[in-house]
Design brief:
The protein has helices at residues 2-10, 15-41, 49-81, 92-107, 109-124. By secondary structure, it is mostly helical.
Length: 125
Amino acid sequence: MLVNILTNSFGGLESRYHVRNLVFGAIFGLCAWLLIDALESGAANPKPLSVIVTIKILIILNSLLYPYAKYFYDYLWGFLLGDRIYAYSLNPITLFFVLIMRYCCWCFAIVLAPIALLILYFKNS
């Protein structure tokens, strides 16, 4: 029963989609990790170790859950727009908004991923 639930939800993504978004999640996580280290090394009053460890655990969790949060975003976007195909140009404004959207998905991955896992479970059952 539990194996079936885990297989249907966590194993529900295409492997190419999952790996590609894991790479994006790792890039965001690495940037956040380095930013935390840089800010703490120059801080006059550094945070307690427990706070830093908690933040870094959240960074790791968000990075690992990012593919599922991105899947939820894509699922919701597809539901709202239907089967329409939109052509995007590669101008800096479009790329900026795509990057912001991906960053928002990474930031809220711990909240969005459980919804995506439920969708994947029911879709693959």
